[in-house]
Structures are given as structure tokens and as C-alpha cells.
Amino acid sequence: MLRSPAFRSFRMAAWLGWQIESNWTDPFLFAIYSIIKPLAAAGILVVMYRVVTQQAFDTPMFAYLYLGNAFYQYVSAVTTGVSWAVIDDREHYRTLKYIYVAPLNIPLYLFGRGVARFLTTSFAVLIIILFGVGFLKMPLALSTIQWPLLIVSLVLGTLMLGLVGLILAGITLLTARHSYYIGDAVAGALFLFTGAIFPLEVLPAYLRPIGYALPITYWLELMRRALVGRVAQAFPTFSALSDGQLLALLALMTLALGIISLVVFRWCERLARERGLIDYTSNY
Amino acid sequence: MTTETHLDDLAIKTEALSRIYKIRGAKKGEMRERVALEDINLSIPRGELFGLLGPNGAGKTTLIKILTTLLSPTRGRAWVAGFDVVRESDKVRPRINMVSGGETSGYGLLTVRENLWMFAQFYGIPSRQAHQRIQTLLEMIGLADRANTKSSDLSTGLRQKMNIVRGFMTDPEVLFLDEPTLGLDVQAAREVRAFIRRWMDENPSRTILLTTHYMQEAEELCDRVAIIHEGRILACDTPDHLKQEVQHEAIFQLLVETEQPLNSLALENLPGVLRLHHQWMNGGLQLEISLAEEGVLPLVIGELERQQAHLRSLQKRQPSLEDVFVQLVGLRMEEVERERGNGYHPNTQE
Ligand SMILES: Nc1ncnc2c1ncn2[C@@H]1O[C@H](COP(=O)(O)OP(=O)(O)OP(=O)(O)O)[C@@H](O)[C@H]1O
Ligand SMILES: [Mg+2]
């Protein structure tokens, strides 16, 4: 098993991804990049909340948006982490053709490349949450955290985001140089539809179906419920659904996404082989 | 099918393999087709070091990309190590490896050893065995002292050597080398050629398909050579047999001194003169002239005297693959490449 192509693809790619991600000559810069930047983004949100609502930080609404925003960091990080590897290997390291000639499982290789970003983002998210609890009095107690739900939701959510990343990786394979920020772009475009910082009810009725169709929406709700159950359930969007039902929905959507993304990715690979794009470099 | 029966002894087989690229035309939305390979039929037995010799744009890289599963053929089929490169690509990949010259690939932030070790892991080679092989090959190619250098700190030539080790270290059944000495200095190129030869001699079942546009490299290294031009294979045989085709010609190199421009047409039109090539070389004019037989030489010398060109040296030359190429194509390889450089694409179709 340890030597199976699937496992070694993932394991070695994770190792490589970590070497690349942590290849900062200056650990201080690395800290700024991976922690201070997301923390600053959270800070802007806090100020906006204060200015717009004039409310205190210990209200349910604050915990809702603060946690939603914190976990949303994963969306661009994981999708970019997975899809970026295509550009990085093809354009920068010029190794993509050698990766493709090797007996690897490419989807698992790409997932592996995303692991490092997942880890650094987890660290940043943890800091953001600790900051919220420590300085902003966000209502979160260790004793009420539902650990199993938290862990299962995080694993499932990460897998789901990785699968979105795989679709973006397929598109990247075909679009050559135009998709440098595809992960960030998708994360930015979906932000307002996922209930990250306000419940879906705030959206005009005709836009709400987008939110209900996105697995990210269910995943964010699950993460909030695992951390601050009572507070999260006070919001109307999913109040009719139990934790188990939400989890089942997320699992089903992830499964469907898994099938779709593998089909899409294989299809993109086939086109890339037909068009000679696997070793294409922009300054060809 | 009859082909399947003896596929086992063949490292590479292609049947009417063709590849057409679609490229954007001059006008907006217009698509044109460029034929990169046309009806390639090759059978390369295991154990052979096979060379593909051809000028820029001949289709060498395209063929390698198809055989290494990176590119789909437009028509025809190909098998590598007994498996179809399209339908059974996942059976082909563990059995092959590939190196392209003239590029700097690799993870610059990793050391030479780390880069190689990682790729060995991609192939599932146990770590200890991988380290041993890497060490042996690094020593063989003369890179052992830089094993712990970050690969971004290596010169292009040394990076290419690292890349070459990456290709050889997985001990592939079939190895594809796309211009492995491109961009290397004379010394490094010589080392790489010796390395390739040694690796082949170590195990008689190993197979290499190597592309090159250096005549001498093909002649020196390869058991058999296919001459490829504009996507077609024009000839395929051992270097000796290929040269026998032009053996009956007498090829002379002459160095002449002349005040006025030489009328080369008058020389070419002499009966028995097959081909003439001239270039200026340190003060004199170097002529290379192919004659139907040696007896024509006095005629040539007479014509030179008539044109008041003084002969400084005269040498009979053994025919080379260059002469074979010229006979097949009508141009020297460098002339073909120069014309391509001027935007001449004979194989572009509307
Ligand atoms: N991706 C591509 N799109 C369009 N045309 C291409 C593409 N790749 C190669 N070609 C064309 O196909 C032909 C064969 O190219 P190929 O790279 O196989 O030649 P080569 O023999 O490897 O040449 P070189 O010595 O320059 O490497 C050329 O005319 C080239 O311009
Ligand atoms: Mg080439």
C-alpha cells in the first residue's frame, strides 16, 4: 500500500508542496505572509461590523460572520493550492511533462501539493479564532465544542474544496497562462453566496438558490455549529436541519462533486493531450 | 492482428503514425493545419540505441511526445514496451523515462540529490536503493561533488546533467532522449555521450530512442539511424549502411585562394560534379565537392585554374551522414534550418 502509485503520488507531492511553501529564506516574512495577512483581513471585517451595526462583539451575529470569514480562508487556499501546482510545475519548474511521464496518479499528486497550503491556512485560522476569543470576547468555550463534528466536517470540507481545486486544475491545464489567480477569483466570486458573513436570507430571493447549491454553504454552517452550536442554530438558513442532516447533505454533495470533478479533469487532460498543452510554456 | 505477435521483442513500434497541429492563421478565427508527422512506421527492437536525425522542425520532439504519452496522435498507432501508448498509457509509463535537452527543468529550491530522490519516489524505488543509484549515476556523469547544491545554483549544463540522471536512474525499459546534448559545451557533450554508451553496454535489454540534429552524434552513438525531414522518415538503417549509399561518390575538400568571386555555377555544371558546397574560412574559400568518380577531379582543378583560384590544400573525405542527408533532401541540414528560420514552412497547409 505504501508503495502504491496513489499513495506515493500524494505523499511525495505533499512533501514537495511543503518544501515549496516553507521555502522562505526569512521565517519572519513567512509568518507575516501566512498569519498577519489573514489576521489583517479579519481585522477589516471587525471594523466594518462595528461601523455598520454599532453592535458589541459578543452578539451571535458577530460570532456567525467572524467564524464564517475565518473558515472561508480555506476556500481560496485549498483550491489554489491544488490548481496552482499545474502552473507552477509547467511554467516555473518546467517539470509538468516529467510528472506526467512518471507513473503517478495526477489528481492525488495535485491534492498532495495542496496539503502545505492547508496546513499553513489551518494555523492562520486558529490564530484568527484565538484572537476573536481573546480580544473580541467572541462566545466560544472549549467545553461546548463538538470535536467529532468539527473533525469530520473539516475533513469532508477539505476534500470538497480539493475537488473544486481539481476542476480548476483541469481548466488551468487548458488555458495556459490566463489562470494564475483562478482559485482566488472563484473564492472571491462565491464569497457572498455561501453565507460566510451573513445568512442567505439577506440575499434577494432569486440569488439564494446559488447559495443552497454550493456545498461550501453547508460546510461553513457545520463548522460554526461544531464550534458555537447554539449561536449558529439561531440563524434561519438551516435551522430546520439537524447536524446529522447537514453532514449527510455535505457528504452527498461531496460525492457528487467528486464524480463531476474527476470526469471534468480527465476530459481536460484528454483535450490537453490532443492539443499538446501538457508541456506548453507561455514563452514557447 | 499480425503486429501483436512479435510485439514482445519490439521496444517501440509505430504504424502509420501521424500528427497534425492546428495553429492560428494570419486572419482572425482562421485555423490552419501543420503536419508534424506523416505516416511514421518504425520498429525498434529491444537493446537498440536508435537515433532520429533531423533538422529543426522535422518532428522529432513530436514523435517523442506521442511515444511518452504526452501527446495524442492524430492518426495511426504506437506501442512502447509492448503497450499501446494511447489505450494502455498507464502500463507504458512505469516502463519508460524521458529527458529533453536544452532546458532548465527541476525544482530549484531542492538540492540535486533531493530532486532526484523525489523523482525516484515517484517511480516507487525504495529509498535506500534510490540513494545508491543516484550516487552511482552522479559519479558516472561527474556531478557527485554537487549533489548537495541547490539545483538553482547549478549552471545550465550541470542542470542538464542532473536531468539526465533523473531519466536514467529509474532504469527504464525504454528511454527517450530528446537532444540530450543540446546546449552543452564540447566537453560536457562528450561526457554525456560516453555516459549514454556505458549505460547501454551495462545491460543488453535496454533501449534508447535518441533525437539529435548533430550528424556526428548520431554516427558515433547509434546502432541505427532514421533520417527525418518534414515529418517523414526518408531513410532508416545503420550508419554504415546509410553511408554506403553515397560510398560510390568521391568527396573532396579543397581550400582555394582567390581574388575575385568564384563562379560556382561553372564548377557545378562540369560533367560528373554531383554537388558543391562552399564557405569562407580564415581567408580562403573552402569547397566541398562530391564527384561521381575520382577521375572528375582534374576537370575541377582545371576549372579552378581557369578562374585564377589557387589551390592551397586538397583532401579526400570519407562520406558522412551529412552527405546522406544532402543526397536525400538536396540541401545541407544547416541550410534547411536557415530557411526555416526565415519563416519557410513547407509543411504548412491551408
Ligand atoms: N504545439 C504546437 N503547435 C503547433 N505547431 C507545433 C507545435 N509543436 C510543434 N509544432 C510544429 O510541428 C513541427 C515539428 O515540430 P517538432 O518540435 O516536433 O520538431 P523537432 O524535430 O523536435 O525540432 P527541433 O529541432 O526544433 O526541436 C514544426 O513545424 C513545429 O513548428
Ligand atoms: Mg525538438
UniProtKB/TrEMBL annotation, chain A:
Topological category with respect to the lipid bilayer: Multi-pass membrane protein
Compartments reported by the entry: Cell membrane; Membrane
GO cellular component, one term: ATP-binding cassette (ABC) transporter complex
Residue ranges of every copy of the ABC transmembrane type-2 domain listed in the record: 29-268
Molecular function as annotated in GO: ABC-type transporter activity
Domain of life: Bacteria
Keyword Transmembrane (UniProt): yes
Name of protein: Transport permease protein
Organism: Thermanaerothrix daxensis
